[in-house]
Fold:
Amino acid sequence: MALLEIVTHLNPVFIPDFHLLVLDIPDTFQTVSLTDLPTDWQNDTHYETLQTYFSNWLAQPDVLTVSVPSAVVSRSGN
Structure:
């Protein structure tokens, strides 16, 4: 579910202030697929494994951006 869909159904009293940020992302980016991750990767027991995976990328980034699966919306990415 997209953020816009969630916000649409909220009581206006609970909607936080938002800021729009537009980024021009290059066509070359790294994609992390579900097959790259442990089977139950959303489980808190894999926190250290996932943190190490992305820490390694941050130490030597070969691309500007990384697309990762959403832990909340299974068919979506971030």
Summary: The chain is about 25% helix and 5% strand. The two ends are 12 Å apart (CA to CA). Residues 6 and 32 are 25 Å apart (CA to CA).
